[in-house]
Automatic annotation (TrEMBL):
Name assigned to this protein: Acyl-CoA reductase
Species assigned in the record: Parafrankia colletiae
Catalyzed chemical reaction(s): a long-chain fatty aldehyde + NADP(+) + CoA = a long-chain fatty acyl-CoA + NADPH + H(+)
Gene Ontology terms describing biological process: bioluminescence
Keywords from the UniProt entry: NADP, Oxidoreductase
Pfam family for this entry, one: LuxC
Family: Belongs to the LuxC family.
EC code: 1.2.1.50
Molecular function terms from GO: acyl-CoA dehydrogenase activity; long-chain-fatty-acyl-CoA reductase activity
Lineage: Bacteria, Bacillati, Actinomycetota, Actinomycetes, Frankiales
Amino acid sequence: MSITDTRPQPADAIVAAPFFLRGELFEGQDVTHRSRDLGVTFATPRIAMDRAVHPRTEVPPLLNVPLNEIIDFLVETGERIRDPRNSFVQDCIDRMAGTHVLPRAVLEGQVKGAAAYLDKRLLETVVEQNFPDPRALDEWVPKQDFTGRKSYVRAFAPRLIHVLPGNSPGVAVKSIAQGALVKAVNLFKMSSSDPFTTVAVLRTMADIDPDHPIVRSMSAVYWRGGDDAVEQVLYRPQYFDKIVAWGGGDAINNVIKYLGPGFQLVSFDPKTSISMVGREAFASEEALGVATELAAADVMVLNQEACVASRFVFVEADQADADRFSERLHARIVEKAAASGDARPLDADLREQIDVLTMLDDEFGVWGRTDGHGLVIRSDEPVDFHPINKTANVVRVDSLDEAMKYVNVATQTVGFYPFGRMSDYRDRLASGGAQRIVRLGEAGPSTIGNPHDAMYPLHRFVHWMAHEDGTLTGRDGSDGSDG
C-alpha cells in the first residue's frame, strides 16, 4: 500500500503519473504518494469524480459495437504496443523503472510480451471458452424452454472497477482487453508500483482513434487503497456493478467491506503455487538435472513475483537426495537470477527469519544467502513465512501423499513431476482446493481460454439480463420475434 506524502519534494525527485478518464488525459501533481515497495515519490492529479463515473442513464458506449470490430481494434493496439516508436510505452517503462522492484529489462519484456494477448485467434478463443453462445455479447439471443415459454438473454455490458496488482504490469493489458470484450464501462485503479502501464495502453488506443467507443469506455486513476474519501464515493452500486480485484489479503479485505446487494466482487485473491516432485527424479543424474531445471523455471516465473511462481517444492526423497535436489535447484535459480539482472536483497524481516534457520542445522538446510542472488531452504515441513524474491523451500516428504495436507483453497498452480503421475493426484488436488495442475516447468504459460482461479472470469464479469416474452401471442398480436 502506498502512503500519501504531504511534505514538499524537489521537483526533480517526483515521478509524474497522469490519469486517463473516458478519452481524456489528465495531468498534474496535485497529490503525492510513495510507492509500496521502493518508497519512491510519485505525483498524480486529483480524481475528477464526475469523469470517473459513467451515468447509468446512458447505455455503455460499447454495447452495440460488434465483437469482431472490438477484437480488430485490440489487435491493432497490440501492434502499436510492440512498435519501438511508441513513445507512450517507452515513457511508461522509463517511469515504472523508478517505482517497481523488477529490473527495467524484465519490465520491458512484460509490457511488450503482454501485447501477445492482443491476438485475434487468442481473443476469439477466450470468448468462445467463456460463453457457450458468444452471440449473447452482441444481441438478445432467443430461447424457449420445454413448456414453450419464450425469452431473450443477453450478456449485458457491466460497469466494472478493476483493482490492478502491482507485481505484473502485463495484467493491465489483459484487463483492458477483457473489459473491452465484455463491452464494459471500466475504471482501473492502478497500483503504486505501476501507476503508468494502463494509461500508456489507453493513450495508445486514443492515438489510433480518440473517439473509439473502447477509448470512451476506459478510465485509469490511482488512489491509496483504503482512502475512504475516494472509495466511499466510487464503491457504490448506483455507479458500478462489480469490483474485479487482484491483490494481497489487505487489498481484498478492504474491498469486501463495501460489498452489498447489487455490488459484487470477482476476486483474484492471494494465491500460493507449489511443485510436487516424485522419487523418479532421482532415478539418474540426467533425471535429477531435468527435474531441478524445470523446478527452477517455475520458481523464477517473473522472478518469483507472479502468483503462478512456485514457493514450496515438495520432494519425495530421503534427506540425502533432498539435499542433492536443493543444491542443484539453488544453482539453477542463481543462474536465472543473474541472467535477469535482478539482485534485490531480501527484506529485513525475511532475512532475520532465514538467519535464525541457518543456526538450526539439524532441522534445516540452507543453500545461498539472503543477498538476492537466490536461496533454497530444505525442511521437513513448510516454513512459516512466504518465500519470495528467488527463495524456494524444498520440503522433504516420504510420499507425495503427505504433501496433500498442505494443499488448500489458496493453492493456485501445482507443477508436477513425473508427468505420468499427474492423473493420480488431480482429483485429490481439486478436492483440497487447488485450481490448476501442470507439468513441472510449465507454470507460466496457460492453455488459452482455460479457467483462471477456478472460474471463467468473463462469464462472471457480465450482467446477465433476461427478457421473458411469455408463451402466447401478445395482446397486440405480435409474437415477439423482433426481440
